[in-house]
Amino acid sequence: MDKLIHHWGNGLTRRHAFKGLAGFLAGSTLLHGQQDVFRDHSRSPGLAELTSSFDFEPIAYAKLPRGVFNYTAYGSGGEFTLRRNRAAFDWVQLVPRGLAGVTAIDTSTEVCGTKMAFPIMVAPTAAHVALFPEGEAATHVGCTNASDTPMIISANASLPVDKIAESASGPLWYQLYPRQQPEANRPLLETAQQAGCQAIVVTVDQQAAYYERRLHDRHLLNSATRARRATRGAGSPYRIAGFRSWYDWKLFHDLRPMIQVPMLAKGVLTAEDARLCVEHGVEGIVVSNHGGRALDHSPSSLEVLPEIVDAVAGRIPVIVDSGFRRGSDVLKALALGASAVCFGRAPRYGLASFGADGVQKVLEILQGELVLAMAQTGRPNLASIDSSLVRTDFA
């Protein structure tokens, strides 16, 4: 009897039994609440199974802390421009040609003195170490392995420029957020050029950005990060980043003596600014709304691309980014006059998913999609691509 009383007194209570059952059910993969917003992750596919750049996003979502994932995914304000960037591709139709006799496809080109096997580049994006331990070095390796795809190193890279350059042999460009005092830019530019960067991309947008989605992550960040971000916006009730609001056209004249390679302006969205770029000695334009991270409710890059190409009139190359995810997207931009296309989020998701191999796979998928789209529209090389290849209906 004593043994029974002891067993009863130390046994599982009903409360503990229900608690254990609740924990079991809450952790079940069958519950909708345990699934991510993309698809069932009861099984993660292998690298060889992925067929489009979109396939990498849910894997990155599953692997990264929510705040880190959202830093890549979010846009400014209510994210209207982020959505519009993708919607714009639905407003451009490709015109197929099945009897064009295309037996081989040549995608090679040269932009601002950099030879490319494909008119595809990796856009400058920050802090790759947050996505994968080897950071930008792994991105550069993946780019190099994917037919020497040019990579634009971000001014906010998590690794030094020379370390990134040493990791692989593919072509590099460098992106600059200008400093207000001209001489403060010199060390950055000298370091980048000494490391072998073949062009300098000066970013002139994102002067007043506000990310509503980031507010939902504020309790997922560590206290040091929260304090740093809180301090960043101190003293400005209108959320304006004053450290970029001083930009003017004199900037390019101040930077020119420090740059011995082509200098491009990134963040151009109007024909007027495109013409002024030419007048102020800029040697290339990147049509960009910062991937929907600059002014919300601005137009998509694709829909303003034709007017900027017309304004430039072939005097300097026009590159475009923001919202690109497929090789067919590249073909649409080329038909509207672009010289090349930059991808930002897609390689980041590849890096977060599988490191350098993921970056390489994303780029190779895009390259293959471009070749297929060119073959189906009867275009054997880039010179044969023109506006007759598309029908546009921009809203």
Overall description:
Strand 8 (263-268), helix 12 and strand 9 form a beta-alpha-beta unit. Helix content is 39%, strand content 11%. The longest helix has 21 residues, at 356-376. The chain has helices at residues 2-10, 14-26, 56-63, 66-73, 80-87, 135-145, 161-166, 186-194, 212-215, 223-232, 250-255, 271-279, 301-312, 327-335, 345-354, 356-376; strands at residues 92-94, 109-111, 114-116, 120-122, 151-153, 172-176, 200-203, 263-268, 284-287, 318-320, 340-343, 390-392. Helix 14 (327-335) packs across helix 16. The N and C termini lie far apart (83 Å). The strands form three sheets. An eight-stranded parallel sheet has the order 4-11-10-9-8-7-6-5. The chain has a two-stranded antiparallel sheet with strand order 1-12. A two-stranded antiparallel ribbon has the order 2-3. It has 16 helices and twelve strands. The protein has a single domain (67-392), classed as Alpha-Beta Barrel (TIM Barrel), CATH 3.20.20. It is of the alpha/beta class and 395 residues long.
